Amino acid sequence: MESSGKKKEIVKKKREVIKQAAALKYSPDSDIAPRVIAAGKGQIAENIIEAAKKNKIPIYRDEKLVRALGSLPLGQAIPPELYEIVAEILVFIHDVDRKYGELVNGR
């Protein structure tokens, strides 16, 4: 116990968040499932995100999914337990592409 009567100040250090990113590719004609083509943390993640933005590739944010994808070897098809969430992402991308097409084509 402090006898000086001063209140103890507790300083919580802000948790540093390290950015993570992963990129998938899916060609129905040649792939059995989407494949991880890039994954990384920190600057590598920043580069993946910048490349996606530059190429107008939709970005989907999901912290748990990016950790799971980041643990897979590059080039590997995603495992069956990720099919459902990745299918939801493919629907999201399809919707974004459709809406973008409508904007560009004035519909």
Structure description:
The chain is built from three helices and two strands. It is of the alpha+beta class and 107 residues long. The protein has one domain: secretion proteins EscU (name from scop), CATH 3.40.1690. It has a two-stranded antiparallel ribbon with strand order 1-2. The termini are far apart.
Summarize, please:
The protein has helices at 43-54, 63-70, 83-105, and strands at 20-25, 35-41. The protein has 107 residues and is an alpha+beta fold.
Question: Secondary-structure blueprint of this entry?
Answer:
Blueprint lengths: L19 E6 L9 E7 L1 H12 L8 H8 L12 H23 L2
Antiparallel strand pairs: 1-2
By secondary-structure content and strand pairing, the structural class works out as alpha+beta
Give Rg in angstroms: 21 Å
Largest sheet: 2 strands, antiparallel
Helix content: 40-55%
Measured by DSSP, the beta-strand proportion falls in: 5-15%
Number of strands: 2
CATH T-level fold name: name from scop
Topology pattern, helix = H, strand = E: EEHHH
Average pLDDT, rounded to a whole number, is 84
- Report how far the terminal alpha carbons are from each other: 71 Å
Give the name of the CATH architecture.
3-Layer(aba) Sandwich
Q: Given this structure, which CATH class is correct?
A: Alpha Beta
Number of structurally distinct domains: 1
**Arrangement of strands in the largest sheet:** 1-2
As residue ranges, the low-confidence spans are: none
CATH superfamily, by name, is secretion proteins EscU
How many H/I helical runs? 3
Shape: globular
